[in-house]
# Entry
Amino acid sequence: MRISRITPLPMTTRSANGPMTFFAVRIETDTGLVGHGEACDCFGISYPTVHAAIVRDAFGPLLEGQELTAVAPLIGRLRRATRRELGESWASAQARSAIEIALWDLVGQERQRSVSSLLGRVRDSIPVYAGSSPFLDDHDAAFHLGRLQPMLDRGVRHVKLRTGPRPDRAVDVLGDLRTLLGRDIEMMVDASESLDLPTTARLADRMAELDIRWLEEPLLQSRHGAMARAAARSRVPLASGEHLFSAEEALAALTAGEISVVQPDPCISGGIAEACEIARMAAGLGVRAVLHYHAGLIGLGAVLQAAAAAPEVDLLEYPVHLDTVLRTQSGGDEFGIASIEDGRLPIPDRPGLGVTLTPAVVEASRLP
# Structure
């Protein structure tokens, strides 16, 4: 099977929060098989045409015409050929992740097996946590409970909320929400890299009293010394991972004592195999591994295949507002909130990623 054409697919689709942009790739082969992959920039692709330029101008010419018998050699080729010009982080890593996922999709299709079965499938469903994006400090607890309720009704028992520009007010609301939810619901908080060390210490003390299971990215993930100091002081475990772009970067963060929860994402960290490797490393160091997700249908397919092949992972993020996107892109409810049973999302075992992004959906949402 030889790669004949790689096409970048910058798209826009409406979520429950409003229009969002997405970036996918389509890889065609001389056998007629077509594979798809997707990138994520951590909170919705804001510059999909930048990723498209990287794929069109750099990655595509390096891979078109190449024989595809295994994924790792071709991804290694991309990294070696472009690392000095494009680096291995941020947009380059995100675009490379999309390529890696599409290659696995093709290999799975050719062998008529799911990607997870090729990697070693260990489960058929995964518990999810509800990711709610409105800032805690912008609304009262009843509003946030209303946002979470559709997933709570599906048996979800893990939720994550966000702090905004008034973090102390956010924790006030968090306390009210804890009262409404009770202690049986596992609660997490994402600070989106918006705090400093003193504020992190103060808020972590308050969150500890509310049994918050992790505080995500209180500081810029790249400020490793500050993250390590915050972790040493915090009474709440710190989490990060959506800004880790390879297993090497993850190993540095894990061994520096910065985090107790790591959140790899195949659409960011270099692909499916890289995300699974990060989860394995985390387990060896006593760090909890959960999967980050914030993309479209193809990205969810990749995250689910990683979850099925990584026994170390115990939880998957499911942003509430992406239900609309997933139903639009799939043409049904197979991956929407309605598909969650007893708090778990089923993992497809069809060839490749097990999801299908139809040409009509692509053309209807494609950006110039």
About this structure: The longest helix spans residues 90-111. The mean pLDDT is 96. The CA atoms of residues 126 and 280 lie 17 Å apart.
